[in-house]
Amino acid sequence: MNPRDSSLSPSPSDRRLSALARHLISPSEAGSRGGADVISRSLASSYSLAGGDSVFSHVSRAPEDPILGVTVAFNKDPSPVKLNLGVGAYRTEEGKPLVLNVVRWAEQQLINDRTRVKEYLPIVGLAEFNKLSAKLIFGADSPAILENRVTTVQCLSGTGSLRVGGEFLARHYHQHTIYIPKPTWGNHPKVFTLAGLSVKYYRYYDPATRGLDFQGLLEDLGSAPLGAVVLLHACAHNPTGVDPTLQQWEQIRQLMRSRKLLPFFDSAYQGFASGSLDADAQSIRSFVADGGECLVAQSYAKNMGLYGERVGALSVVCRTADVAGRVESQLKLVIRPMYSNPPIHGASIVAAILRDREMYNEWTIELKAMADRIISMRHQLFDALRGRGTPGDWSHIIKQIGMFTFTGLNSQQVAFMTKEYHIYMTSDGRISMAGLSSRTVPHLVDAIHAAVARAV
Ligand code: PLA
User: Coiled-coil region(s) at which residues (predicted)?
Assistant: First the structure.
């Protein structure tokens, strides 16, 4: 019997409604019209219509997100050996999430400061955070900053910055096509399509060489319509871990400027690729140095470990200070009806760290330690696969850059590793090196070895 079928047995809510109706109706009305029963029947039937036959009954179940859904599946697995290499979230050698010491220090400072209040921030966020974020990404001596040609607005981490930038372009830029690399972070096409842009791909990765398809990239950008927007990963390309060299960046810059293509940088891993904040911003700085315009989305999720604080920034570098001011006024019109104004806590932590020399130094040390641990995991995994004699050339593991290794394992092999070894990763074969530790390398190697042997 369907327990929700109120025609067979009244539910507790139906009984409560009937009792309410009996209580409300006067005895005389009850006598003349059959009263309480009529009303209670009608209340109950309208209730069962609402409950049993939902106005949302046509809504189908959506699939889980391809990246965040990996964690959902991982959490349901009771196995003690399970390993989550899906989402790009840093873990310690012990497999634990990490709050940086410098973040705890800044938070303590914020708590101790009794003058701090919880008023709304302005629509564009915390002014000091915006200024310091621009300096961090463009460099303190950036001519664009000195000439006041940059507008920076605090947004909801990297994703929110991309979305606000996308919506601004859809409203105010003459070209509505954005070219994104193939492959790219899975959320990019969704963010930009919903922002109102039309998404096209440019060639980026060559599975045969497990490296950059530089020729394909140049051809595709060379034939993109004049003025199109181009999304570029500033460093540590997700998911491939393949970045252009500085020379290749220079060629990309020249080509893009000659075709008036508008660069939109996604900087989600500044400091995570090389361990140096300046080196990882080099691609962006070379585009700003030529005096041209660009957009940059910055995230503090990974490099400060502020994942859940949702703190990031969108900068638009313009030709003149006057244009930058007008652009900012329009960004406010995008933000205000979207989420009104951004949250205060994460931005205050970032501002505290960036403003104080001692804290800043401490941050760079902790950041370098995270980047170094990831690089060391690459070497451990590579050595272990070689030592084990696992068929294949695994040198890409040590050549790739940043948080992820694009293993080359296919979706069946990934499914096999999840089912038999409880190793969770995205179905494109990407593993988060930040989730791996010396302790878990042997288990991963067993799984990869078995998956590869099985397919041979
Ligand atoms: N851009 C790129 C290239 C990213 O990889 C990510 C996060 C973001 C933007 C957005 O980050 P933020 O909004 O949290 O600042 N990518 C993660 C997480 C780490 C995710 O998918 O949300 C990933 O596992 O790919």
Answer: none
